[in-house]
Protein: GntR family transcriptional regulator
Organism: Halomonas salipaludis
Amino acid sequence: MKKEFYYSYEEPASSTAEEEAYCYILKRIRHGDYQPGDRLKAEDIAKSIDMSRMPIREAFRRLSAEGLLVMRPNRGASVCVLNKSDIEEIFEIRAVLEGLALRLAIPNFNLHVSSELERLLERMDYAQQAGDIEWLTHHRHFHEYLCSLCKRERLMRQIRSLHTALEPYLRVWFINSENPIGKDVHREHMEILEAMKGGDPYFVENMMQRHIQTTSAHLPFC
């Protein structure tokens, strides 16, 4: 029996204390509660979520391996700071990995997936018109949902880490820009969806790569 595809917009359920700590810290990095350069203390986080420091330290090591935290001897962990070159590189890597993910995703595209993507685009459009910063969350969900159709767990872990590393900077950009989302962005997302319906894996791969490259070119820190 073929396993039905399912993607969750929420963080996965925490089966261990380490996983709970990891998800807690990850969410706060994404939302900018922990800013780039902030020093994180295991004892403070342990008190916040009522657990011992050991799972927090394990979560620190995991987030460090993903490039989201920097570990220094006798100084603990701090949120990774990205410079202009780092951000440019992340967009370059995203273009390659997300393009690959979409090429691999084509066989798993169907009417149910298409309907879900259309709903996500509607949420993005509504948030854009309202000037709501949650557009960034809906945007991440759109990209991650599309890419997750590739059904490659290692590839998806890398893509999610890249999105998380960028999100605090995108939130600052969104807040300080008069018109952060141009009309072309919505059109490009619609075109990607139409390309998925067309079923040409290499055309879709190229389209996603161009979309991400175009996006990075319009950001002030790239």
About this structure: Residues 1-6 have pLDDT under 50 and may be disordered.
